[in-house]
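Query form — protein Phosphatidylinositol kinase

QUESTION: What is the three-dimensional structure of this chain?
INPUT:
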Amino acid sequence: MPTPDLETAELTLTGRITTASNATFLGSIGDVVVVYKPIAGESPLWDFPQGTLAHREVAAYLVSQALGWGVVPHTWLRDGPMGEGMVQLWQEQDPAQDAVNLIAADHVPETGWKQVLQGQDENGRMVALVHEDSPALRRMAVFDVIVNNADRKGDHILAMADGHRHGVDHGLTFHRDHKLRTVLWGWLGEDLISEELDGIDRVSEGLHGELGRNLADLLSAEEIATLAARCARLRLAGQFPAPSGEMSAVPWPLF
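ANSWER: The structure tokens for Phosphatidylinositol kinase are given below.
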């Protein structure tokens, strides 16, 4: 069977993802399974311009491509049953793996994991938020800093069977003001490695070329300028940043 044209072939809805805060549907284009988020189904937000979340999701994919790390699954804008929206290739994660988890505070492994915070659960027991200490999650953490991700929840990280980690749900990105809220704080203050620095350089260089031209259709000029400034600051610092400002450093809920 020939591969359908993902831009123009019919998009058929097969279900709705009811846990999402905006209208989110499961669909198919031929035999290709996709996620579809129509712009018409975006809930108004006080701090992000109305009707821009789908554009930000596509912009996040373009930055992911420039980094070269495959953080964000293939994402694009197209028409659908409820009008124009974001479409993304569905990823079947491995249910046996958890890249981020809440565990008993006295059971945090000594190696292979990073602890982000501790707190009490609904029964008063001490628990710890942890994430794996892996190159894939380090790259995602760098990506989140660059795109100013305001909503990196644990469930927005898809653990694939082959060890790859995909990040999804990037509507709350690229704000001109500092908005970074993430569960991936485990490398706070650690030096970036050469691979991570090279990725930042690819984005900075791309903003002067094709990446910049493509982002101009999705983000404001000020948002692109602050994206460039974040890359420059992170490259100069050469290490994972610490939380800053008065807002929470983690999203809520965490998952």
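ADDITIONAL NOTE: Residues 221-237 form the longest helix (17 residues).
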